[in-house]
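Problem: given the chain below (146 residues), write out its structure.
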Amino acid sequence: MLETILSIAGKPGLYKLVSRGNRNLIVESIDDRHQRMPAFATDRVISLADIAMYTDEEEVPLADVLTNLKEKENGAICSLDIKKASKKELFDYFAEVLPAFDRDRVFPSDVKKLIQWYNILIANGLDDFSKLAPTDGDNIDDRSQE
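Solution.
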């Protein structure tokens, strides 16, 4: 089974699904600490495989966007300093990664979050983004069915 990479609303960083508890998920932070903690049904937990970016035609899975970003950066950490970048700089940079992104529905904060996630994944050796693609049977939202 592929590792499931998760984002938890209100908590910084990314998390790896370790196991499922009775009424929660056990997750481990993807950083140097590898801290384990529970994620409860009240937490907004989403798998990166379930996220897509808006374009002018259709939604593009996050795995494809991350792959494009990896190709642009040659597998290295992102060269853009997102803390100092203006909205125009963020959108110009992102246009090189995903040229047809919908500028009305994608916000600068979305681009910053994407780059942060990319940097976390690359820094921790999780650079095979094809593993983020959804597969049959991988649905973390099934945890509420008891």
